[in-house]
Amino acid sequence: MAALALLLLSLVQAEASLDAQAYADVLSQPTEEKEAFVEGVVTKTLHGFVLSDSSLQDFAEHAPPTYDLLVGQLKIQPWICGGDTGRLCSAPATAPLNAQGWQGVYSDPASRLIFARRVAMERLDKEVVNATELEAWARTAPQDFETALGELKDAPFLCSWPCPDQEVPGMEGGMTESQRRQVFVGELAFACLCLLVALLVLIAGAMVYADRRGASKHAEGVASKKKDLEEIIERRLREERNVEHQAALRAMAQKMVPMQSQVASASAQPMGYGYMPAQGYYSAQGSAMPMPPVSRAPERCTRHRTLQADHPL
Ligand SMILES: *[C@@H]1O[C@H](CO)[C@@H](O)[C@H](O)[C@H]1NC(C)=O
């Protein structure tokens, strides 16, 4: 609301005074007010027309510092026509895109075409799809500007950006049928190549996986076989040891038989050596062994004698 009020105020001011003093005041104010002031100078002081609002806005943003400079620069701006500017508004390239401009160019079909193209692009934001049809339309265009504008709005030879069917040179739409087929074949080949590469990668991966699994299985097999072999070897060794043991036992038993018989014959004979109380130590050879200095034998005898003395038979 405040902005609107300011704008109205500035419009009133612009209407009221378009002199150097007012311009000096307006210079320190926002762009919209400068824009309104500049437009006022164009239409009321120079009696011209503004052809482009965006150009006016650009100019107002970088407005010259003095009123004289402003008027001087406005006279040579390409976006202004008519009045004191020296550029004819009836020129189709510069005529204002309104009823007045349309009437200025209407007498010449070529000028109508140029003007219609500008209306389509600058006022309706459309692009020309078929220049031939636009040219045909311009040749028989209605004289009333509003009617012409309405026809251009719905014209099939114009489209709103981005135009889906518009043929832009160098793009896919501008290709011939054979070119399109070639591109399709190329794309197909590329897709096939991608598929092939993916397949190869998949196969390689599967092979590596299988190889790893096989290797681990093989390692397991080898380990279990080694264990089996070790067990077999151990069993064999144990058996062998057993056999040796048995053989040794048998050999010992065989050796034992003559020893036993010897022992038996030896026990039948009087001991090779011994101790007799009367004789002392003797050997099988019959020779008395020298008596060891033992005090026990006489003691025992004494005792025997003592017993006999106590209990006379
Ligand atoms: C433009 O329109 C004319 C007439 O309708 C047609 O013959 C021509 O092929 C069109 N051109 C393009 C590029 O569409």
From TrEMBL:
Keywords annotated in UniProt: Membrane, Signal, Transmembrane, Transmembrane helix
Membrane-spanning ranges: 188-210
Signal peptide: 1-16
Protein name per UniProt: Uncharacterized protein
Organism listed in the record: Effrenium voratum
